[in-house]
Amino acid sequence: SNLAGGGSDVPNQVRNRAIKYGSNAVTSILIVIGLILGVNLLGIFYQYRIDTTESGIYTLSGQTVSLLDNLEEDVNVISFFREQERKSVEPLLRQYAYHTDRFSYRIVDPDREPVEARRFRVKSYGTSVVISGDREERIASIEEKDLTNAIAKAVQKEKPVIYFLTGHGEASPGSDSRSGYRRIKNALLEANYEVRDSLLLVSQDVPEDCDLLIVPGPKTLMYPSEIEAIRSHFEGGRTAGLILIDPEYRTGLEPVLESWSVVPNGDLVVETSNVGKTLGM
Fold this sequence. Notes:
Transmembrane segments: 25-46
Protein name: DUF7088 domain-containing protein
InterPro entries: DUF7088
Domain DUF7088: 55-120
Helix content: 25-40%
Pfam families: DUF7088 (PF23357)
Shape: elongated
């Protein structure tokens, strides 16, 4: 897969505006897309703890650590578990807190503190409430995948909008087949993204609200008008991202990508981290 978000030859004015007005939005988008697609988009260096468990159950994925390291707001998690369940819950929460001072947690026994349970409208054991500012997210389990997604939702002020391009034999984000991308679409929705999966560019521009354009495995060349629409959107001063998935065939975008200093080689990327396990894939 290949990813582009502009290049060194884009006019300085466009590049400066993108850096000034859109860096936080792009960072947020790339972190969560990294979670979903299994691509480590941010190289973050941090202190390591040695995990001596055979399965690595106390080791957070690189994607979760990236999200934690880039938190700009405080996140508080209140988990409602019985006292005898505390030992099975706290190690994961402690790992999150270890990586950033912006993360804090409490484990509340709803039997011993029923007033606190009613305050947060908790009706079942195992519920966790993720709070950031005036935003709350609830999860029914304390697994890393669910907790990280809940944090990503809680810290987002606006829903980024993602479009899937169609009209060139692309894989369908609504299909459950082996070549389909329903799993990715569902993961994006769970991560609080707005997904629109039927963008035809033959007679229109890329919508202004497009934060990320995904081109999933195109099989035919794009029309010149489509290529120009994509170029105009990304060089028009708006900060956005472009992802090409499995670009095995020429799309017509190659000259545009080269002008951004991006060359799609069609290389194979092998994911060796535990992100697949983290995402339940």
